[in-house]
Amino acid sequence: MHSQSSPEPKSNRFWNWVLLVGLTVFFLALDLGTKWLVRQNLAVGEEWAPIPALAKFFTFTHVQNTGVAFGQFPGLGWLFMLVNVGVLVGVLVYYPRIPAGAWSLRLAAALILAGDLGNIITRLSTALVIAQRTGSLWTALPHAYVTDFFDIKIWPVWNVADMCVVAGVLILGLWLWRAERQAVAEDRATGDV
Predict the structure, then answer these.
(1) How far is CA 118 from CA 15, 40, 164, in A?
(2) Number of other CB atoms surrounding residue 36 within 10 Å
(3) Residues 6+ apart with CB under 8 A from 84
(4) How many Å apart are CA 142 and CA 138, to the nearest integer?
(5) pLDDT 10s digit of each residue in the chain, 193 long?
(6) Domain limits of the chain?
(7) Alpha helices of the chain — where are they, by DSSP H?
(8) pTM of the model
């Protein structure tokens, strides 16, 4: 699986990090900006149909999600921030090892990192606001939430951060699948199967 691919030359490493930071900041700003717009313009539970004829299928609905992706495990989202931190560390450790020319992996890393950071930042900021009222961060954590708003009526409500993580994982999965197929084809061509 591209085991013979070498890492990027040192001259390109700087630009690869610039690419990661630039894409991550772009997607993170998109996530945090859309969440802010929803909080400023829709009350919790309020819906807005940008295309009224499609209101049965799609609306923006302001939801405060205290769980993890797509509202699973309500009240335990703060606990899964440990997973978010692990993913963040994993992306940063693996990123320099991405083979030269694997631009789709660089995009996947930026998407996953942005989505991960977007939900961490949102959850921590809401926990701090709640802690100011309750006097304790520990009791505020189960009530910390992210703002979800894309409401496709056959699916749980989600946000840009969720979209980034899912897109990044899909790109990564597709890359791995194609690399595996290529390795199998190379093995067959050399008779190593």
Answers:
(1) 23, 18, 10
(2) 12
(3) 116, 119, 120
(4) 8
(5) 444 455 555 668 888 999 999 999 999 999 999 999 999 999 999 999 999 999 999 999 999 998 876 667 777 777 778 888 899 999 999 999 998 888 999 999 999 999 999 999 999 999 999 999 988 888 888 888 999 999 999 988 999 999 999 999 999 999 999 988 988 888 888 866 5
(6) 10-183
(7) 10-41, 81-94, 103-134, 137-140, 160-190
(8) 0.85
Question: For 188, which DSSP code?
Answer: H
Give the HSE-up count for residue 69: Cα atoms under 13 Å, Cβ half-sphere. Answer: 11
**Buried-exposed string 61-99: b where 16+ CB fall within 10 A, e elsewhere:** bbbebbbbbebeeeeebbebbeebeebbeebeeebeebe
- Look at residues 177, 165, 182 and name the one whose alpha carbon lies nearest to residue 31: 165
Radius of gyration of the chain (CA): 20
What is the Cα–Cα distance from 88 to 82, expressed in whole angstroms?
Answer: 10
Catalytic residues: 148, 162
